[in-house]
Amino acid sequence: MIYFDNAATTMPNKEVLDVYQKVAKTIWYNPSGMYKESVLAKNYIDKAKSTILKTLNINNKEIIFTSGATEANNTAIFSVCNKYIGMNKHIITTSIEHASVYNCFKYLEQMGFRVTYLKCNGGIVDLEELKNALTKDTILVSIMWVNNIIGSIQPIEEINSIVKKYSHAKLHVDAVQGIGKIPFDFDPNKVDYLSLTLHKIEGLKGTGLLFIPNNVQIEPYIKGGHQQNNMRAGTMDVAGAVAASKAISIAYQNLNSHYNYVQELANYLLGKINKLSFITINRDKGSYSPFVISFSFNNLKGETAMHYLEKANICVGIGSACNEKTQTLERAIMVLTDDEKRAINMIRISLSHLNTKEEIDILIEKLKELERI
User: Fold this and answer.
1) What's 64's domain CATH number?
2) Mean pLDDT of 355-360
3) CB atoms within 10 A of CB 94
4) Residue 54: which H helix or E strand, with range?
């Protein structure tokens, strides 16, 4: 099988699986207990946190372990907004956010919050539009770092500076498609909330991270016991925490070499696609991640193309894995192109360091066959 859907999920790294199994078999105690085995389990979690923070060069944040990025995003958003329900407050996001952010804002809009959806013409936030949208009532801005559909990279450093200069709002960054893949182009210590998930970087499903400011007590999204300083109830998965630290450590040990290699693959793929007259690449001016490439067929639905490639054992995406079974048009493509046909006819190639130019050559030959369908 040739796998080109790494923005949806990635194959777990063997070292991550091994460390998970080892810890799960030996340190299986409840870390909330008071006997020595539980204290040992808690120490493993604390060490995992310390390793993650050190690897990411984050020194002013606490980590909350979650079930994934969806929960991390929801927790960040609602922990800020719930205390302001019924107070006519203002919040800002973009029109191209992942559903786990966008649908939170749609819900909050129904709850009476005033919401600004930044247009992101060309796939990138217009900084002047952001500045003009901020008001004294703005309490939250949530903007993703790397878009999961078109790969556009938002200027988080500049966004953070504007938010801090012109408002008292908190800034939340969904960093799922950037962490462990592309080098930081902003200081994560300066943003208020940062969320990620591990299965996008060869870690395990079921573990996400939310970084919150030190000495901040957020309202728990998952309610119950006192775990994680009363900010996220539920017995903690010690092995999951250790596996998370292992996945992040491996990703950052190899970040530059993997990034440069995938950039080379992306350039190779884009060069090949540019020669196919029946395909249009979904990019505009600005900075884009080499890990995510979206393009549209002139006269063929993306779903049809996906299933044709599937028969050749080539896996590609046709949008967010969280949305693929719905009939809605992919928002990021609509915002970028304002073209329903391109949104319907889109597929996404998301690369990893495990892909090769030989696999891209096979993909291109199969794409050429699609011109005749």
Assistant:
1) 3.40.640.10
2) 98
3) 27
4) helix 36-55
With CA atoms as reference, report the closest residue to 52 among 176, 196, 190: 196
Q: What residues contact 46, with CB distance under 8 A and at least 6 apart?
A: none
Q: Is 81 tagged catalytic?
A: no
DSSP, residue by residue, 87-134? S--EEEEETT--HHHHHHHHHHHHTT-EEEEE--GGGS--HHHHHHH-
With 0-12 / 13-18 / 19 or more C-beta atoms within 10 angstroms meaning exposed / middle / buried, residue 202 is buried
Q: What is d(CA 315, CA 3) in angstroms, rounded to the nearest whole number?
A: 5
Residue 342 tokens read as 């391109």
Q: Hey, which residues does 153 pair with through a beta bridge?
A: 146
Q: What is the CATH number of the domain that holds 352?
A: 3.90.1150.10
Locate 3 and state its tokens. 């796998």
Task: Note the pLDDT tens digit of each residue in 116-148.
Answer: 999 998 899 999 999 999 999 999 999 999 999
Please indicate, yes or no, whether residues 54 and 77 belong to a single structural domain of this protein: yes
